Amino acid sequence: MTVSKTTVLVLDSADPELLARFYAELLGATAGPAADDGELLLVTGPAGAVLGVRRDPDHVPPSWPLPQDSQQAHLRILVAAHSLDEAEREAVALGARPVAAEDGGLRQDGRTTVRRYADPAGHGFVIAAVQDGPATAGPAG
User: Fold this and answer.
1) Cα separations in angstroms, 137 against 40, 45, 67, 83, 103
2) Does residue 130 carry a pLDDT above 70?
3) What is the pTM of this model?
């Protein structure tokens, strides 16, 4: 029998409260301390997805994307295609910094359907449009 497990992607930040609030607001989630770990804040979404944020006073933001176009670990936030521009405005209003737009997946108006950002602590994330909405996109997105 397999031991029951839960996975949590944890991001380091010099200001974990700020970063947890950023993701909670961006994802329509809640943020709060982990029950058994005072150094970990958990961001829990409506579907139960969890993201952790841990204090690291020496945190150095990653360099992303690298010039070699390396695919580093990053969050991929899926939104319905018709909501992409609104999701982008929300992210920027909350403190995301646009990094780049990927070449593929152009819309009819010439804008890309995959957009890269850095969160307030410098971690990379992508907002990507899916035709049927995020609930039907599947795990690979």
Assistant:
1) 29, 17, 29, 15, 21
2) yes
3) 0.76
